[in-house]
């Protein structure tokens, strides 16, 4: 990083970083609350998650305005411009994660509190925990500017995809066993897909964070596949 | 619009507009091809749609770079800054639409060519046509800067949601009738959800386009609900 003669540029960047950190931890808490609400059929908790999405939207708008003002006012070059544009992109992924957590919350009403449905809901539990952990990690790594830590983190997205494929098969099995399971399991399939998509946004954040820190692309970009969509032999 | 002493600002804006128009028509063609591929089990066509997503990504990066350079170089104020930032947001929605069309293409392999699966696939046909029409419309309206035309267009998003709810119920019925239908119908449920999400991105584009043209929010912002997620009585 080049030292700035005008320190307030760095101060403004630090303010932007703080918004990203807050959005990251807030969205991870939304994912956690939505998961608990799904597992325990907690409608009130689900409603709070749905309402919390407005906080994420407001923070993103605030970051966008600060970043655009900063670009217009300071005309940053190279490294600094990359950092500001990277922050806009990271905030956009975090805002989408907030949307997806809200969608998880909306599904709670459709998954009833019957013992069977609660059993099915547990199929997504460990996937949700992993996604939430990855989300907190990527934001902390970004704030610490620890580029090397992003390489193993991105590789862990594969674990989420493996879990998603397993959950997909498990839920399909419940549906085939008894048609009465179909509605709850269909909604849980959408929940699992939402969690997998949150994992994809975490990967996007890792890639943008690496680019901000190094100016290069994150190495070993693996091709992204949703295996459930390309295996006609699933049934 | 304020007249610019430096005409190249307008020329650069016009170049950005052309990228948006191209991305809009290209993504609508992707949605159409993916739908035909689903209805007719056309694997080759599906593969082309999947590959086409890279074109959308490249165009978005090109637009982002032009827009950021323009902001840094010209420091536009008020109306002009709003237009450039609006274009970045519209391109981001179009890029997401390309991703969703790619996801539709990926599902083709999972929906077999049996007569039953082809029947199920037709449940999404009219929804796909409406989504594609809306997408072409919103981009044309943006290019023409016809703010008033955006009001009825946004209202039409409700039609997509109504169709989505009907498709969801229809597919669930097929699944309950015969467990052998579950795999194909599950993949088609994800396709229907992707189409509904494309409709949401069209609404985002309409809102951003209106803001670019008028500086105000598009009136009568209706609350967005996915009814399938909030009606536990569906089964």
TrEMBL record, chains A, B:
InterPro entries assigned: PhoU, PhoU-like_sf, PhoU_dom
Keyword vocabulary terms for this entry: Cytoplasm, Phosphate transport, Transport
Subcellular location, principal: cytoplasm
Cellular component terms (Gene Ontology): cytoplasm
Domain PhoU per the UniProt entry, residue ranges: 20-108, 124-208
Subcellular location as annotated: Cytoplasm
Any Gene Ontology biological process: negative regulation of phosphate metabolic process
NCBIfam families tied to this protein: phoU_full
Biological function: Plays a role in the regulation of phosphate uptake.
Assembly with partners or alone: Homodimer.
Family per record: Belongs to the PhoU family.
Protein name: Phosphate-specific transport system accessory protein PhoU
Organism name: Tianweitania populi
